[in-house]
Design brief:
Elements: H1 16-21, E1 25-29, E2 32-37, H2 42-51, E3 53-57, E4 62-67, H3 71-76, E5 91-97, E6 103-112, E7 115-120, H4 125-135, E8 141-144, E9 149-154, H5 158-163, E10 177-182, E11 185-190, E12 199-204, H6 209-217, E13 222-225, H7 227-236, H8 278-287, E14 291-298, E15 309-311, E16 317-327, E17 332-340, E18 349-354, E19 357-364
Parallel strand pairs: 3-13
Antiparallel strand pairs: 1-2, 3-9, 4-7, 4-8, 5-6, 6-7, 9-12, 10-11, 11-12, 14-17, 14-19, 15-16, 15-18, 16-17, 18-19
């Protein structure tokens, strides 16, 4: 009789006990035991973040430091973003690509003293680390910092709250970074996030995470927020979730992420291109891809979940839903999906096969809720 191996135990972030003490319902996510919601519930947490400020534990994400004066040039060989011109303490969203132009991961890159700081997805961080070690120039020192904690403070009151501890932090622009102290703890803060709201991500040594979280949660406008509301917030903002809306079968152009390809990187190879899959991606940039990621608004109240078949007006399958659910701020169901390019124009009539019943929907512009990033 064969035996089934026990599943690997879930990792815990430094805030695990804090989540349990605050009544969180914990679930396995990307190998970690994470809070999906607190007693208030996903909708209440979502709306609180839109109105005030939510605190998210995102310590499961991978932090990787690249040291060396040539780090930006070296990483440019693996991504389509323009990193060499990235100014100190500024950040950029970019994509690790395979040789066919497929997306291995999406990540944030910040220019720091003597190199770069990367934040990569939790489920991809070990593979990303191996990818970097195999391909980056030996002059670049690769330093994984997976033990560090990462918190996200998001919402319209995030800036004034953080400014109580670090005066002036409310004036740094979107996609920039600063080193600050919170309650005597050194932190690296970026004005960024995954909700469409203004806010920050705050990195610190793992042993200080509980103290920082408790300090922020002591502010009346701040509430703890779980993965459930994080997902509904990013869906309303039209932001991709790796492994769902984008993956190794998706190119940046198909994903609607052409804006991640720096102007200098759009030149022919030898003049500035030179990233994996450049020939295919630059051709799609000129000629268009065969399929596209789009926003979708179902009619009625029935949400269309990931994997739902998308049909055109003639009843032919033209794509699949990659993310979907109820948008609390929208007040109804929303979705993203990948469809044949000929059916990607806003307003195109579609049907979504929900519980074996084709239900009417149409392609809709994204984001579904206007973003509120601070531009200064």
């Amino acid at each position: 009789m064969s035996q089934t191996a026990d599943p690997a135990p879930l990792h815990r972030t430094p805030l695990y006990e804090l989540h349990r003490a605050r009544g969180a319902r914990m679930v396995g996510f990307a190998g970690y035991d994470m809070p999906v919601q607190y007693p208030a519930g996903i909708i209440a947490e979502h709306l609180h973040t839109r109105a005030k400020a939510g605190l998210f534990d995102v310590s499961h994400m991978g932090q990787i430091r690249l040291r060396g004066g040539g780090a930006a040039r070296a990483l440019e060989a693996l991504v389509p973003g323009d990193l060499e011109t990235l100014a100190p303490q500024r950040m950029r969203y970019t994509l690790l690509l395979d040789e066919a132009g497929g997306i291995l991961d999406d990540l944030m890159v910040t220019r720091v003293e003597d190199g770069l700081m990367l934040v990569v997805n939790a489920a991809c961080k070990d593979a990303d680390l191996a990818h970097l070690r195999a391909r980056l120039d030996r002059s670049v020192t690769i330093e994984p910092q997976f033990e560090r904690a990462l918190l996200a403070l998001q919402g319209p009151e995030a800036a004034p709250i953080l400014a109580r501890f670090a005066p002036g932090i409310d004036r740094i622009p979107f996609m920039s970074a600063a080193e600050i102290g919170i309650a005597g703890v050194p932190c690296v803060v970026t004005r960024s996030g995954y909700t469409g709201e203004d806010g920050y991500e705050i990195a610190m040594a793992g042993e200080h995470a509980v103290a920082i979280a408790e300090t922020l949660l002591a502010q009346p406008a701040v509430a703890p927020i779980g993965l459930g509301a994080r997902d509904t917030l990013r869906l309303e903002a039209g932001l991709c979730l790796y492994g769902h809306d984008i993956d190794g079968t998706t190119t940046p152009i198909e994903a609607g992420l052409a804006w991640t390809i720096g102007k200098r990187r759009r030149e022919p190879i030898g003049l500035g291109g030179g990233f994996p899959g450049a020939e295919r991606i630059l051709r799609e940039l000129t000629d268009g891809p065969r399929r596209k990621r789009v926003g979708i608004r179902p009619d009625g109240r029935a949400p269309a979940r990931e994997g739902t078949e998308i049909r055109n007006a003639a009843g032919r399958a033209v794509g699949i839903v990659t993310s979907g659910g109820f948008g609390p701020s929208v007040g109804g169901p929303i979705a993203m999906g990948c469809v044949d390019a000929g059916h990607a124009a806003a307003g195109t009539k579609l049907s979504l096969v929900v519980r074996d019943v084709p239900r009417p929907a149409q392609v809709a512009p994204m984001p579904f809720v206007p973003t509120r990033y601070y531009r200064g």
